[in-house]
Amino acid sequence: MSFATKAVAWGRLGALFFREFALSVKDVSLAVLDPRRPLRPAIVAVPLDVKSDAGITLLANMITLTPGTTSLHVSEDRKTLYVHAMNASESTVADIKAGFEAKVREVLA
């Protein structure tokens, strides 16, 4: 992969992170300001396609740095990442895989 391609991949990952960060700040702020707003906290199991230590670490840290989510544990076989989401939906796992994990795999390819 050329330097330019890598730079573009890192730029896309950064843009995705800041977009998700901004959306999460809004969601957490609304939850704090309106305590009647229903939340759906959950611990979800995210099956991992990324295998390297660097990839798992980058993915877990990006999830933890996003308000409202925390990476809790990587399974012993390194195939599952457990994530606590303050407001989980049916698409939480799919969103993580299609967003953060896909971009992490792209930058580490």
Overview of the molecule:
It is built from three helices and three strands; from the N terminus they run αβαββα. The chain is of the alpha+beta class and 109 residues long. The chain has one domain. A three-stranded antiparallel β-sheet has the order 1-3-2, with helices on one face. A hairpin with a 5-residue loop joins strand 2 and strand 3 (80-85). The longest helix is centred in the N-terminal third of the chain and has 31 residues, at 3-33. The radius of gyration is 15 Å and the shape is globular. The model has no long low-confidence stretch (mean pLDDT 96). It is found in: Cell membrane. Belongs to the CPA3 antiporters (TC 2.A.63) subunit E family. It is a multi-pass membrane protein.
Features:
109 residues; alpha+beta; three-stranded antiparallel β-sheet; 3 helices; 3 strands; globular; monoatomic cation transmembrane transporter activity
Overall number of domains: 1
Rounded Rg? 15 Å
Unreliable runs, pLDDT <50, ≥5 residues? Answer: none
Spatial ordering of strands, largest sheet? 1-3-2
Global outline: globular
Mean pLDDT: 96
SSE succession? HEHEEH
Please state the structural category.
alpha+beta
Oligomer: single chain
Organism: Hyphomicrobium nitrativorans NL23
Subcellular location: Cell membrane
InterPro entries: Cation_antiport_E
Pfam family, one: MNHE
